[in-house]
User: Which sequence fits this backbone?
């Protein structure tokens, strides 16, 4: 088993008294693939380095299978690490780079050969085992780095932006290989990335961090549909959630003011009656908006198409909502639906896709 627990973990850097991680608590279950996402400076890499033993913990505890590992050296934790930089030994060929962790632990002969060839086959490196890292493109060097990290069965696999240098086509391939390795080798994996699409495609659960603090942990479905706060709602999803100012009319109705008058929307869920008559922020995801060319009554707002972004299988429309460009909303439509700049359209929000916020806090219980 490899169950990882962080209990009220802090990282405070003495120079400048900077808080890198604040009171962080979460659990990564045995054989789980957990992704940590957040903007730069949110505490992702500091968390990973404390798990690896490369950073001292200021306060709190990290446990592997119930055992506190705060004071164990990196080598004593049996953690596999792969970073954004390849950190390969350029005087050794690919075979010896991959074999290095095994030889460092005293393994010899046929046992080393068997393990190197097994991991090389899984990562598509068999044909380059005799080559040197400097002769390989970046995508292959990253595979070698991953192979070296995973050659021995670790208690925990830590991956810090391990495929960020690869081009988009190679990244898709490496994602699939990483997930397959995780499943085939029954690993416990924590993956740090700024690329939420990468995290979503790989993980069982997401940890969202911001300004050194945990914002939410859950499955993609939980975070997508029930974000813990406005930051999470905005950060998860591309394009990001739209935010429009509105006002609550009653327990199931709100309106959005426009130059042509109020547009009324029904919403699903429960709110505290104290919000009736108060201004709130309405959140709707671009992917869930339906765009009509003709006027439609109820739960719609009119706007003018200003920007059209063709994305291959889809098109992203930026629609001005009638107040001289001060408020706009993005909507995602299938690529075969053709729109032109200047078209008037009606955006339809079904009651179940509407989120409501008072400042940073969600107020709609679903």
Assistant:
């Amino acid at each position: 088993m490899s169950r990882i627990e962080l209990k009220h973990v802090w990282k405070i850097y003495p120079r400048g008294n900077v808080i890198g991680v604040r009171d962080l608590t979460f659990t990564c279950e045995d054989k789980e693939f957990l992704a940590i996402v957040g903007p730069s400076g949110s505490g992702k890499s500091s968390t990973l380095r404390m798990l690896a033993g490369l950073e001292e913990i200021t306060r709190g505890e990290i446990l592997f299978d119930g055992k506190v590992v705060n004071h164990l050296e990196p080598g004593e934790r049996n953690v596999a690490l792969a970073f954004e930089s390849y950190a390969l030994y350029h005087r050794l060929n690919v075979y010896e780079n991959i074999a290095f962790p095994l030889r460092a632990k005293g393994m010899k002969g046929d046992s080393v050969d068997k393990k190197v060839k097994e991991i090389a086959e899984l990562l598509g490196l068999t044909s380059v085992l005799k080559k040197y890292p400097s002769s390989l493109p970046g995508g292959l060097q990253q595979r070698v780095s991953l192979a070296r990290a995973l050659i021995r069965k670790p208690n925990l696999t830590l991956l810090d932006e391990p495929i960020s240098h690869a081009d988009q086509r190679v990244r898709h391939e490496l994602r699939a290989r990483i997930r397959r390795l995780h499943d085939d080798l029954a690993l416990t994996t924590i993956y740090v990335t700024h690329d939420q699409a990468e995290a979503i495609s790989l993980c069982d659960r997401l940890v969202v961090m911001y300004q050194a603090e945990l914002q939410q942990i859950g499955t993609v479905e939980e975070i997508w549909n029930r974000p813990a706060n406005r930051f999470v709602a905005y950060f998860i999803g591309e394009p990001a959630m739209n935010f429009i100012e509105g006002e609550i009319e009653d327990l199931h109705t709100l309106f959005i003011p426009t130059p042509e008058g109020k547009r009324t929307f029904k919403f699903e869920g429960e709110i505290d009656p104290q919000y009736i008559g108060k201004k709130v922020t309405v959140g709707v995801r671009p992917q869930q908006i339906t765009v009509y060319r003709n006027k439609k009554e109820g739960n719609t707002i009119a706007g003018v198409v200003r920007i059209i972004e063709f994305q291959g299988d889809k098109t992203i429309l930026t629609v001005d909502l009638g107040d001289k460009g001060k408020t706009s909303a993005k909507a995602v439509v299938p690529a075969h639906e053709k729109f032109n700049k200047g078209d008037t359209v009606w955006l339809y929000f079904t009651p179940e896709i509407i989120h409501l916020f008072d400042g940073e806090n969600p107020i709609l219980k679903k």
User: Anything to note?
Assistant: The chain has a mean pLDDT of 92. Residues 242-362 form a domain with the OB fold (Dihydrolipoamide Acetyltransferase, E2P) fold (CATH 2.40.50.140). The helical segments are 44-52, 94-104, 109-122, 138-150, 168-184, 196-202, 220-225, 230-235.
